[in-house]
Amino acid sequence: MAGLFIRDEAVNALAVEAMKLTGAANKTEAVRAALKAAIKAAKDQVPLMERLEAARNLADQLGPVEPEYDAKADADALWGED
Q1: In a structure prediction context, what are the per-residue pLDDT tens digits for the chain, which is 82 residues long?
Q2: Residue 3 and residue 25: Cα distance in Å, rounded?
Q3: Contact 62, 50 (CB under 8 A)
Q4: At what angle do helices 9-22 and 27-44 cross, to 10 degrees?
Q5: Element holding 3 (H helix, E strand)
Q6: Residues 6+ apart with CB under 8 A from 29
Q7: In angstroms, rounded to a whole number, what is the distance separating the alpha carbons of residues 68 and 52?
Q8: Contact (Cβ atoms closer than 8 angstroms) between residue 53 and residue 40
Q9: How far apart are CA 30 and CA 17, in angstroms?
């Protein structure tokens, strides 16, 4: 099996830093762990449209806004500014 050869010095420096910080045995292991973490993070990310739909559903469950509600009066009361 061939070792990891990185031509870009900046990427090599990142691999060395990751290796040192994570205690990886070598650059290959550090890069492997970093790539696995990046792939997992990308797969775990919920798409924007799904997050918006969840927010809309929550808002629908809460119901319509009370037109007579005075948010400023509530904020003033919380700050003791009646």
Answers
A1: 567 788 999 999 999 999 999 999 999 999 999 999 999 999 999 999 999 999 999 999 999 988 899 999 999 999 987 6
A2: 13
A3: no
A4: 90
A5: none
A6: 19
A7: 27
A8: no
A9: 9
